[in-house]
Design brief:
Number of strands: 36
Bound molecules: (2R,3S,4R,5S)-2-(hydroxymethyl)piperidine-3,4,5-triol
Distance between the termini: 59 Å
Structural class: alpha+beta
Largest sheet: 10 strands, antiparallel
Number of helices: 13
């Protein structure tokens, strides 16, 4: 053990309150991946300073001597975890009121360890800090994923004081970044218009992205971002980009503060909004995980890093694709009987789909789920609609060679439900205040911070799976936000714990579900893309990207989603035209070519399709099966963006061994005499690829069937003559 630290250690482990930090020896902490470094140093005063997150630096030793030239009255240097107190003026990652009322926290180094985990690709560094004056400890935990170039981080805050402390802010990380300029890219939107992309050049002061909705947190903003360094324009292929994504399914906040020294201070974590959290003596609080990556290959490189990490570590089944499916919602909504469903299954099987998903409307007897006003919580099959039960539908699907999936919304109830009659105290409400009723004017959120509710929600899945082990897929929906907050479970003086403990409650339930049912595929849906984040994806397999299934809107929704999430998790369905949400009409081919760039499904009443349309669907589905492994597991190279003024957009997925690629090309605006050019990056320049157009009846372009080098395909590209709005073409490239 380092000599100078001995007294501090002794006091830490004896449980004594330390009254001053011991002097530390200057040293460097360099957390590395194959292509990036996070460099920190410990000053002789014991402060842990943050110097660099970016391209890998092997010899970072000189940073111990670095001078910031800052006068001491100008605030602290860049801290690894900024706190309220001492000389820090920036928004703090940690703000605490200590047991004796002291509002300051000044963390000093105690020790750090780095070890390689059983998976040798992963290294964990834990930096232990303690306050100079109070018995408050913080551990900063950094996990480096070498090949993916991802570093994740969270903090553990421990109260050893004599009495309770209150955490006011408890971010997962604070990341100081120093560059000439910072272009922030993030998602915004609304229901049925999720994942739109905003680019903002950060100016001095603060900009924050947050949710206060608790449930359905990602419709409007998403806890993920990119920062392009030293450039005022967003670039797919070039330049330095830092990307981050928070794994948290509750209120979140990302704060971007450009300070007087031109340093960008990024805070990311659970939203401190109305969330004061009391930590009793001896208790600790673990923040959510923040995921960072760095790439010198523009936004595309950052996305690929995140996609790799997601598939290898961040998604429950990162390497198991969800089957192609027919979902009953847009085709049947609440009005169906067994025959409606078995007919849909027949049609799905005939078109080559692999699963049938029974959406909303199958449950409730006293209060039948015939519309969105009743029944949530009463998870017994509706005997009128399905007298032979779910098993009948599931076995019918199996007999036709299809898997079976089912919809639930277990966090919710309706005021018209047997559940609410029995347990009115389980819903979120503040006595003597009007209860806000959501969807249908009757929907209420169950208080998942209450362990009894957690038990119930686990039971919903457990009972369903026990009674129907043939269920292969669950669509887990959540159709309202939480508001008029009040929890009958939380103490009056700890009502603000609700926000955190709801999300922790959800995770406790999911832990149990995953321990017992590791194989079932589960989709995270929250009125479409309301729960698209890596906190959920630790337990879920995919997301319902949006309730907007219209292909043109989908170009933007899927593009935005792809910045941070792999195609593997993007549920994308072909639906009717004119589209039920937007009223827009698009050709069936275009709809398929858009949906095939994610996890393909269909969501319509097949009996309304013509014979020609069914044949077209059969062809598109068969072709998709030929290349979907590349979409699901390959490297994504976006070709421009659906926002580009030229109105052409493309996507190339390249297999990891670079032997195959699938290229999607779309025309979103009439081209007149212009012929679009699609340059396909990521190929091996020396390999020769044969190009074959998919989802077409006959060859349409001069290069179909031709063989071209990766060099030519990436430097010159292909020029399919797509000139009319909604023209599209998909190509499979295979190494000779
Ligand atoms: C909202 C979802 O996003 C839809 O796909 C559908 O499942 C409905 N809920 C059912 O109520």
């Amino acid at each position: 053990m380092n000599k100078t630290l001995k007294p501090l250690f002794a006091c830490l482990f004896s449980g004594l309150i330390c009254t001053g930090a011991a002097a530390a020896e200057p040293q460097v902490i360099n957390i590395k991946t194959d292509g990036s470094s996070m460099v920190m140093s410990v000053t002789s005063d014991g402060e842990v300073l943050f110097h660099h997150f970016g391209g890998r630096i092997d010899d970072a030793a000189p940073v111990t001597g670095i001078k910031s030239y800052r006068r001491t009255d100008h605030g602290t240097d860049n801290l690894a975890y900024s706190t309220m107190g001492g000389r820090n003026f920036r928004e703090p990652a940690l703000r605490v009121t200590h047991a004796d009322g002291d509002m300051n926290t000044e963390l000093r180094y105690v020790s750090h360890t780095t070890r390689t985990l059983a998976d040798t690709n992963v290294t964990r560094t834990v930096i232990k800090l303690t306050d100079t004056n109070q018995a408050l400890d913080v551990e900063l935990v950094y996990t480096a994923y070498a090949e993916e170039n991802v570093i994740t981080t969270h903090a553990v805050i421990r109260n050893r004081e004599k009495g309770s402390i209150v955490l006011h802010s408890f971010y997962s990380s604070s990341l100081p970044v120093k560059a000439r300029s910072y272009l922030l890219t993030h998602l915004y939107g609304a229901w049925a218009r999720e994942s739109q992309v905003d680019h903002t050049l950060l100016t001095h002061g603060s900009k924050s992205i947050e949710s206060r909705k608790q449930v359905r947190t990602t419709h409007t903003e998403n806890p993920a971002f990119m920062i392009t360094l030293d450039s005022e324009s967003f670039d797919e292929n070039y330049g330095e980009v830092i990307a981050g994504a928070l794994a948290w399914s509750g209120n979140f906040r990302l704060n971007f503060e450009v300070d007087e020294f031109n340093v960008l201070n990024i805070l990311a974590g659970a939203n401190p909004y109305a969330s004061d959290y009391t930590l009793g003596e001896g208790e600790s609080f673990t923040t959510p995980e923040m995921i960072y990556t760095y790439s010198s290959e523009g936004a595309g490189g950052a996305s690929r890093n995140l996609h790799d990490w997601a598939r290898n570590y961040g998604v429950w089944h990162g390497h198991v694709p969800t089957p192609t499916l027919l979902n009953s919602w847009e085709g049947a909504a609440f009005s169906f009987d067994a025959k409606t469903l078995t007919d849909m299954i027949d049609d799905a099987a005939a078109m080559g789909l692999e699963m049938f998903v029974l959406d909303d409307g199958w449950f409730g007897n006293k209060y039948p789920r015939n519309n969105d006003k009743a029944g949530l919580g009463d998870w017994e099959v509706n005997r009128e609609k399905l007298p032979e039960g779910i098993d009948h539908i599931a076995s019918y699907a199996h007999d036709k060679g299809l898997k079976f999936g089912i919809w639930i919304e277990p966090e919710m109830t309706n005021s018209k439900s047997e559940l609410f009659e029995k347990h009115p105290e389980w819903v979120i409400q503040q006595p003597h205040r009007e209860m806000h009723k959501g969807r249908g004017g009757t929907q209420l959120v169950l208080d998942l911070s209450n362990p009894e509710v957690q038990e119930f929600v686990f039971g919903v899945v457990d009972k369903l799976m026990t009674a129907h082990p043939e269920i292969a897929y669950i669509k887990w929906d959540a159709n309202r936000c939480a508001n008029s907050i009040g929890s009958a479970f939380q103490r009056p003086d700890e009502q603000s714990h609700f926000w955190i403990e709801y999300t922790q409650g959800l995770y406790k339930v999911m832990e149990r579900i995953r321990a017992k049912y590791p194989d079932v595929l589960i989709q995270s849906c929250a009125s479409g893309g309301g729960r698209v984040e890596y906190g959920a994806l630790r337990y879920f397999d995919e997301v319902w990207t949006s309730d907007n299934t219209e292909a043109l809107s989908r170009t933007r929704i899927q593009y935005g989603t792809s910045l941070f999430f792999p195609a593997l998790v993007m549920g994308s369905h072909v639906s009717v035209t004119p589209n039920l949400q937007t009223g827009n009409s698009t050709p069936l081919k275009f709809r398929f070519d858009i949906a095939c760039a994610g996890r393909l499904g269909m969501e319509l009443q097949p009996k309304h399709m013509t014979e020609e349309e069914r044949a077209e669907a059969r062809r598109a589905i068969a072709d998709y099966k030929e290349y979907r492994d590349i979409v699901m597991q390959g490297d994504l190279y976006r070709i421009g963006s659906p926002y580009d003024e030229n109105g052409c957009y493309g996507l190339a997925y390249v297999s990891k061994d670079k032997r195959r690629a699938v290229v999607f090309t779309y025309c979103l605006l009439y081209q007149s005499r212009t012929v679009p050019q699609f340059r396909i990056r990521g190929l091996d320049p020396d390999t020769r690829y044969t190009v074959r157009e998919m989802n077409t009846e006959e060859p349409r372009f001069w290069f179909d069937g031709g063989t071209f080098s990766g060099e030519l395909l990436s430097r010159m590209g292909l020029n399919p003559k797509l000139s009319r709005i909604y023209d599209s073409a998909v190509f499979l490239l295979e190494a000779r």
